[in-house]
Amino acid sequence: MSAAPLPSLFVSHGAPLFATEPGTTGPALQAWAKAHAPAEGLRGIVIMSPHWMARTPAVMTNPAPATWHDFGGFPAELYQLQYPAPGSPELAREVLALFQAAGIAAQSDAQRPLDHGAWVPLMHLYPQAGVPVVQVALPVGHGPKEVFAMGQALAGLREGGVLVVGSGSMTHNLGEFFGGGREPSPYVLEFSRWVESAITRGDRTALLNYRELAPHARRAHPTEDHFLPLFFTLGAAGWGGDAPLQADYISREVMYSMLAMDAFALTEAAVA
Hints:
Elements: E1 8-12, H1 25-36, E2 44-54, E3 58-60, H2 89-101, E4 107-109, H3 116-125, E5 133-139, H4 144-153, E6 162-168, H5 186-201, H6 204-208, H7 210-213, H8 217-220, H9 229-237, E7 245-251, E8 254-255, E9 259-260, E10 263-268
Parallel strand pairs: 1-6, 2-5, 2-6, 3-4
Antiparallel strand pairs: 1-10, 7-10, 8-9
Helix pairs in contact: 4-9
């Protein structure tokens, strides 16, 4: 009997401070990984982050990616953090081949480091940094349908010990970051729960058209970049198709009143 495919995972990476201020989401991610996708059972991680945007689809082939502190104005301790996970040129070649088979022209990048959209959540999921990581770029100009298709192309990796991760943010209006509020803004909760409902229902049409249908969509995401990795996760899971899936929520925390830290895993629904 073959092992069940690994879940497809979405994580909100929040602000860079998430690395040192984990809230409840950081420990929840670590506990989830230990229980459902332990490091010793993984061949690798393929992750999309909005902090690597390229003109065309691209895949990191770097065998030893550096930890890139791609942010400014934060406490000095953040710049001392390292996440020395290895890369995997072999897995990267598999990703490139799967994209090609799906009609997605992608390029390799042998110099690409890990940006904070990748290494910050991975520090919580796999703090020992022992699992090989391959990062995938978010192509400029791609929308939900195109990013969904990228995830779909890689769905088969989940059967071979590869964890496919979309790293973004459930809400991401940085213009409100310094508002000083502590309680979650009502619009943040309304938008996040609308998304959760659409995911749970398997309503692909609603979610692909979230920009027009979701409450407060443009306030939650003045630009789409931090929401699009969600569709990478959904595509990799085969969400919205014939087979029912289960969304296991790992976190619904809200930080700084406006950053929803939602994280969830998509797995095959149990058959009664």
